[in-house]
Amino acid sequence: MTATIKPMELAICVQVEELPEGVFLATSDELPGLVAQGRTVAEALEIARDVARKLIDARREHNEAPDLPTATAQRNYTIVVAA
Fold it and tell me: CB neighbours (10 Å) of residue 14?
């Protein structure tokens, strides 16, 4: 019987800003090197998730895993509502 390894989920705070060119730039103070650009906020966040995964994997290969909090059952989200 083999044990299944559940992947760890990390919580990374990402800031997204709209650039004058009309695209969205996602960065993170918690994970230096994370930079992603998309046509929409959702696309920028999706790309940022992929970039974060690659950065974390690369750092683990060099025994430099970032010190990031793990995600818990409770998560905080920000929603934007037009009013």
Answer: 18
